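Note to self: keep these together.
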Amino acid sequence: MAATDSSAGKRPSSIWLSARPPVKRKAEQPAGLDLDKIVAATVRLLDAEGLAKFSMRRLAAELGVTAMSVYWYVNTKDDLLEFALDSVMGEMRLPDESAPDRDWRDHLRELAGEYRNLMIAHPWSSRLVGTYINIGPHSIAFSNASLRVMKESGLSLDQISGALAAVFQFVYGFATVEGLFNARCAEAGVSVDTYFHQVMAAVQDRPEFAETMENSTKVMEARGGSTVEEMRDRDFAFALDLQIAGIEALRDRGDDRGPGSPEGTRPE
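Structure:
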């Protein structure tokens, strides 16, 4: 979703669309302060305290400078958050597309896994992904890599964007829930496994949850995994395999109907 200017008809607002002149050091600016240090401190604060508690004053205190010193480098908090988002997007490792034995399925799994890990490591990032237009250099590199991988799947050009949406919207939702659950556990001062078992113990003897508990217990036993992380990993891997299987099935079906076709089968 694009962040837009308040006036209708103006182009979307983004630090990556703004021509910002180089910062010239003033006498009153703190020595050693630069944009990279400001962005790094922003990421640390967002990781530690979350998006709701973040402020330019809090950032300035973390850096040991005045709030005005930060504004030598960015015009608004939105600009800084865009920088922070693209900074963590740069943590994702992109697949080696030069490998002679490359397989698009494995590359797609790698990209999905990296995106999931990003959202879990930086829970605030999922909110910003849905707020800004994500056209920083690292975001664009990830988007381009994802597009190239999906092109290798054999889908037609008109199907590629829908396939990417299916995969990465799934990853976004899965990892956002993981991140929120982890944050709740951290706030409660307990591990993810401890919190999970506390919840299960709290509902297991309640009659209104009897059917849910019976079915859930059987499913969890069949799925396997002794920790919440193992159970999540199994679910994520299987769900991603379902996405890939769907892509392959649509490709192998071989019909020429577009995404908006009323029927899902090839005409006889």
